Amino acid sequence: MTQQKLRIMIADDQELIRESLSIILSQNADMEVTGLAENGAELLSLIKKAPPDIVLMDIRMPELDGVAATHAIKEQWPQVRIIILTTFDDDEYVFNALKYGASGYLLKGVSVAELSNAIRTVAHGGAMINPGIVTKVVHFFNQMAQSSVQQDDAAIDAGSLSRTERNIALLVGHGLSNKEIAARLSLSEVTVRNGLSSALSKLGLRDRTQLAIWAVQTGLANAEVLP
After folding, report:
1. For residue 212, is pLDDT > 90?
2. Short-list 17, 15, 79, CA closest to 47
3. Residues contacting 109, CB < 8 A, separation 6+
4. By percentage, how much of the chain surpasses pLDDT 70?
5. What phi, psi does 66 have (nearest 5°)?
6. In the beta sheet, which residues pair with residue 83?
7. 207 belongs to a structural domain
8. Picking from 9-13, 49-53, 77-81, 149-153, which range would have the lowest pLDDT averaged per residue?
9. Counting C-beta atoms within 10 Å of the first and last residue's C-beta, which end of the chain has fewer, N or C?
10. What's the pLDDT tens digit per position in 74-125?
11. Cβ 220 vs Cβ 170: under 8 Å
């Protein structure tokens, strides 16, 4: 039985980038590029005809930028997963893209293998943020939490979580991977994966990116790990 390929659309205002990414990704046996767009507006027109599984999108584009396009896509086609692929790591762009539902945020310096693996990870419901951006995201959301979010909201929302689930959510908010969380809490990676899945279900969140945002916005990321 032939495995269905991941359908990918690419939006970037630089033709060379679009074409290069298309050629590179099409060499993966499990991927096919189904559309190229030079801005967000053109991308939306393409998606209306045939929604892809994954969108690779630049941030700064004419007519409709990557943040606005992400917002529009997730409202109309919530099943389409979006990876922001850009040269910019500006705090506000990062925050807004993730807030509107992007599952990944990578800088264009990533390798072909890293990009391909990120696409597969996001396609299967995971999230992928460039390691250099994770600290920036956590810092930015911490600032937001301190200025506009009531810290005791965390106690209310986290009340449904078990101690292990709470600790996992807290450490996800610090940008730690499952392997790092397992080491920190002296748990197996399987236990961490199960705890993460359970926490997402209880909180009604989609993926670890949303959980990280929730942990920081509610102030849980500023709390101590419970023994």
Report:
1. no
2. 79
3. none
4. 84
5. -65, -35
6. 56, 104
7. yes
8. 149-153
9. N
10. 999 999 999 999 887 666 777 788 878 888 888 888 899 999 999 998 888 7
11. yes
For residue 50, the one-letter residue type is: A
50 Cβ contact partners less than 8 Å away, ≥ 6 residues apart: 7, 34, 35
Q: Are residues 141 and 206 in the same domain?
A: yes
Give per-residue pLDDT as tens, 156-173: 456 689 999 999 998 888
**160 and 88 part of one domain:** no
CB 12 within 8 A of CB 19: no
Residue 20's contacts (CB-CB under 8 Å, 6 or more residues apart) are none
Q: Which of 4, 96, 30, 5 is nearest to 57 (CA)?
A: 96
Predicted confidence at residue 29, as pLDDT, reads 94
The whole-number pLDDT of residue 196 equals: 93
Coil, helix or strand at residue 227: coil
Q: Say if residue 59 is in the same domain as residue 147.
A: no
pTM > 0.90: no
**Distance between CA atoms of residues 108 and 89, nearest Å:** 10
- What CATH number is given to the structural domain containing 34? 3.40.50.2300
Residues 15 and 123 in one domain: yes
**Together in a domain, 123 and 145:** no
Same domain as 196, residue 100: no
Q: How far is 9 from 114, CA to CA, in rounded Å?
A: 18
